[in-house]
Amino acid sequence: CYTNDTALRVLVCFNNSMPAQYRLVICCSLPCSDAQHIATATNPLPAAFSDLLPHFLVEPDDVYIVKNKPVTLTCRSTPATQIYFKCNGEWVHQDDHMIERTVDPATGLPVMQVKIDISRQQVEKIFGLEDFWCQCVAWSTSGTQKSQKAYVRIAYLRKNFEKEPLGKEVALDQEVILHCQPPEGIPPAEVEWLKNEDLIDPVSDTNYYITIDHSLIIKQARLADTANYTCVAKNIVARRKSSSATVIVYVNGGWSTWTGWSACSATCGRGWQKRSRSCTNPTPLNGGTFCEGQNVQKSACTTTCPAVDGGWTEWSKWSACGADCTMWRSRECTQPVPGTGGKDCQGLDLQSQNCTSELCPQTKHIMNDLRTISAASGPEDVALYVGIVAVVLCLTLLLIVVVLVYRRKKEGLDADVADSSILTTGFQPVGIKPAKPENSHLLTIQPDLTTTTTSYQGSLRSRHDATGKFPVSNGPLLDPLPNGQHTLHNGKLPTDPADFMTRLSTQSYFKSLPRDTANTSYGTFNFLGGRLTIPNTGISLLIPPEAIPRGKIYEIYLTVQRKEDLRLPLAGCQTLLSPIVSCGPPGVVLTRPVIISMDHCSDANLDNWAIKLKKQSYEGSWEDVLQVGEELPSDPYYCQLEAETCRVFTEQLGRFMLVGESLSMAAAKRLKLVLFAPVCCTTLEYSIRVYCMDDTQDVLKEVMQLEKQLGGRLIDEPQVLLFKDSYHNLRLSIHDMPRAHWRSKLLAGYQEIPFYHIWNGFQRSLHCTFTLERLSLNTCDLMCRLCVWQVEGEGQSFSIDFNVAKDSRPVDADLLGLDNSAPALAGPSAFQIPYLIRQKICSSLDAPCPHGADWRLLAQRLQLDRHLSFFASKASPTSVILDLWEAQHFHSGNLNQLAAVMAQIGKQEAMIFLVTDGEC
């Protein structure tokens, strides 16, 4: 290039591998000689290193953007002529680079460092596509090199924990697990645990262990571990704390050793001595149970007395002169009385003397003769009495022999009659068969037990062939019954209930069975099945047809256990939700599941509960056999949880209960609140009892029976309260009482029932008593309001308004909804659906239908389609569906509705409902 008077040389330097916008153009307004010099200086690399590729001394690392602060990425390379950043595949503008050039003093190579800043807005522009990344590219005269990718992420930490630790009550030395799932965050949060706000260091205290999933494990709970535990999550953004979980380590009381026996209370002869022990080994702490049993024992004792010789008292005064001309005086050997081997008094205790100077000799002779006659007649009278007694004994023995012979002949005749007529009754109890609804084709069919596959020949208990019986002599089962002694009369077992319970309790497995027959039902069943019911408890056992193998006869019982009779293995947040039901004997062979129905008191929301079915093993330990909602069709147990009832399918009899563990504080148990008061009141004091019990029929029945014994009356309709797992107590208070006539003797403003007394479900007849006092006997009208509520939770109130003198209602028996059905029903009378009709329904619906008109549609119409996988695992799905329908509708079943469902399915052409009586 030339100007007017000066020649300019323009030097253009570029690299074809660079984008066009980065090619450098250097214009120099210098003489040609100077420009040549600068062109030579632009390549400072020594000749020995001119062919080296650049290598990175510093590469960009992953970084996080905290809040709105930008982050800086750094890249350093040698030897390098240029370095530029590329982010998400696009070059960063050259103006955004901060460049620094130096020379390595050791090698003389040029070192180039470049930095760029990345803002939050840049990263958010590609939100949802992929992570934001950057890398740098370095050039030398020999080529280029790329660094590693550095990812830029926006850091955050959510506020709410995925899972927070829950408080627990645990026994001493028990393992404790506190679960914690930190909030979502980038980078992932680190977790640490605080104990009463102090950091837990598992290294210094090896009793603590933090798992890889952030749970805290206390290996062996100590008293010092009673504290509030908090899970802390933190990252570079924030630090979050969970709600505190209170761990209470309780100590159950233990008896100390007995003290020595005290000295006998009597210094001479029979007395008492005692010994004692205290509940201090260890002392119960933090709500632990008190020692069971007596703390004092008494025992009879006898102290050897010293020998005492008898001594005479003073002579009495002389008597008046008698007809025999004699007067008398006496003395007694009572001063002291001879004892403990002492000698009797020596001498006469009676003295006589003539009081008329021997003037009555004839009278004296007569008296002597009378004494002689009296002495001679004694032995004859004794012989006469002995003879009379011997005759009476002989007659009594003869009468007993006659009675025994007569009874034995009569028993043999009854057994023969029972065996020959048992099948003609069809197991039909007298007066128990359900009434026939009108206009139902289903009920026109009565099964004939002597035809086709339903025939059953012979008596229920074979007198000679015992091969078909269940081998009850082996294992923990009942002792074999004597041949022909127990047969079924009209569907009922004639065995004495007390005798039946006595036989059960003699077996080792049944030691804890209750002996009260009011809570036990039993019966004898064969392949036709039947039903056991404990009246007014909501507990029943359905034995479907064909559940008992043909040819087998089982004597089966059903009973409800008292909670205090068993040691239940509950810990932490676990609670008993149902009665403890026993059915057996265990070990009987069943070919299809039976159905146990029992009440439960949970809110039936499985999102808030982990409900498990527990079964007691033969050794006495409790095992989890299934978790409700997570059953597998292949399991031997299955559970259908309804709003207030649980149906358990099982092929193994035994002892069962439902146990729940709350997953959140929203989990709630249903409590039934019932108010009772005395029937009559003759004093100024008047008491109101408020029962707070699990909402199950068996507990209500127990309270009603207790109040009937106490002479109580129901004073208001029962109410239901949802009691939540919030660790808050239940409070009861009385209000709006007319102070001019009544006053409360309660010193505090309210009464409280501790949370754990209600939650564990062990307490029987848990109640509070409000003692009121009327100021005058003429005051009979009581009006007030009684409130029951959980602290920081729901509540109920009762408006009390009645006359304490005129209202003499007893305990309201209608509250139980009395169950008038027989406790044991055998054969067809136990079912709504006739046996032959049932067989036809199963054969019609079990086979798959291309249009879906099979058992699946039946389950859907009966609103049982959520159990399809369970039904499908059975040989006859329709039969299991009908079993469940029978269990649900024994008292309220409507065969017309079932017939309508079958008509909707379109199976009336299968002759299910049009079978005539003759065909049956």
From TrEMBL:
Main location: membrane
Gene3D superfamilies: 2.60.220.30, Death Domain, Fas (1.10.533.10), Immunoglobulins (2.60.40.10), Thrombospondin type-1 (TSP1) repeat (2.20.100.10)
Key words, A-Z: Cell membrane, Developmental protein, Disulfide bond, Glycoprotein, Immunoglobulin domain, Membrane, Receptor, Repeat, Signal, Transmembrane, Transmembrane helix
GO molecular function: netrin receptor activity
GO cellular component, one term: plasma membrane
Entry keyword annotation includes RNA-binding: no
Occurrences of domain Ig-like (ranges): 167-248
Location relative to the cell: Cell membrane
Protein name: Netrin receptor UNC5
Organism: Lepisosteus oculatus
